[in-house]
Predict the structure.
Amino acid sequence: MIQPFELFKPVYLDRLIKLKKIYLVSQSYPRGDHNYPEAALVDILVTDYDDLHYAQVHYNAVKQDKYASIIHLNQIEHKNKLDQMINGEKYAVYWAVVSNLQALQKKLDKQYAENVRRYISKHTTWRIKSDTSIRPKFEVIFGELFLNLKYNSQIVRVKFEEIENS
């Protein structure tokens, strides 16, 4: 399972405030990396926004999630709570930012090329020639990892989970 996002570090709080990205939407994150001794941690994903409206749209898409909330970094209680979560031992907080997109793309090409071929064969009518390559691209929508597949003028957006399970 690919875990593409950065662990959220305390230094990011002030940077986000300076960039006026003061709205964070939190949600459960099932792709958390459990290669650490504290496997009992709750994995949380936060996505930043500079516009409250967009944060509310994201929140409305995930509001059934027990850990869904809108965090206002300009409200001291919210900022302090997030700081406690980042520095505490109960939560592993990830930020919906990919630090090295090229490495992620390389991992996709290396580990999941066959899965992509199987998915295309099973779920599309595309007849791809052997000398043609498909260059899938990652996209994050409301904290969910998607893969965009393009062949000629056709585009398919699929949850990456479906590719992993192909």
Remarks:
- The radius of gyration is 18 Å.
- The longest strand covers residues 42-49.
- The mean pLDDT is 89.
